[in-house]
Amino acid sequence: MIDWKRFSTIPTENNLRDYPTALDILKDIVSGEEHSLMYDMPLDKVHTCIPDLRGAGRYIMISAYQMDFPVLHPVSHSPFIYYRGQSEYHSCCLPSLYRYKGAKLEEEMIRSYFQTAEMILIMKTHPIIRYLETKGIWNDRLGWIPLVVMYDGLAQHYGIKTCYLDLTNDIWVATFFATTIYDGKEYHPKYIKESDSLEERFGVMYRLNYFETEKLVDSSRKDIMPIGLQYFNRPGKQCGLVRNMTDIRDLHLVPGLEYIFFRHDNDVSRLIFTLSQFSKKYMPEDSLVGIVEAICADDVFCEQTVELVKKIYYPNLTVEEIKTKASAYGFRFTNHLKASFDKEVMEAEYFEWQNGGAQRYMDSIVVKPVLKMNL
Fold first, then answer.
1. Residues 52 and 192 grouped into a single domain
2. Cβ atoms of residues 342 and 287 within 8 Å
3. Which residues contact 199 (CB under 8 A, 6 or more apart)?
4. Same domain for 315 and 254
5. Cα gap 8→16, rounded to integer Å
6. pLDDT tens digit sequence for 113-134
7. Which of 46, 230, 256, 265 has the fewest CB atoms within 10 Å distance of its CB?
């Protein structure tokens, strides 16, 4: 097994060649997962109260995270172990929103609120979103179970700046992001040249292990939030979870965090990118992509959006006070939402949903009782 502590210090020119590649780390973790599946039986008091979450491509329904409705947690070969892969290391690992300071942070924060609120209003016009929020899924024992549409998590995954950091419980997903770069539109393999600086020639893999802590039992924790199986399922393809960073803005300060540095290798980057179906496996196109791009294109928002911003983010301010606050940053307001789903596309998506799509969605969900105990 690779010793994470040995490679937890920033590499130098003299020892970079001694560091593992991202593929070495991937093989090591996958090998450990396979060994666990074959030989390890959780017999201690913490593990026995949790159903088997091992596997891939499915979601387990958990009533947790201080929410009124159940959430769908992505099933993993390493349950409650979360990863984050980065092709570059930053001394402060901050969510996109907190990379700003002072007055600029306040401006970007209110812009994020308006963009997310407008996205919510537009999404609620889609018949499948209305279906999931009003009906949910059918379980023979429990009946209709309404599901949470994780709007904040969707905003993060579709490009709106938020206070969240992306995590995943799938090491393959983390390795993809560890070996690619984003040019503002799409992902490409991370290739290095001899002339690149030392900092450009290594990346970092983070790991949060809740499996070995009492946080596993406390299913009401609020720091890690699964986005789960969503109809617009880019985060689902990534087994996506997010950590709210309002309390600890730098990931490096999170208790229990481990990280390991790795050296970039062009052949490894090419292989991982190919196995990701040239990024399409984890970054699928859908009709929400264009909606969010339109929302983020300018600072023009619907009057109705102001009311939702008040309801969610500024309950103690009046609508006029919020508009004044936003107008100071050049925001403008209209009577119409700036974007909408294409009618023909939306009708086709709903037709497909009614004719097998809903059943496939439900077949991905495992409904099991989760016993919460104070041990």
1. yes
2. yes
3. 88, 89
4. no
5. 12
6. 999 999 999 999 999 999 988 8
7. 256
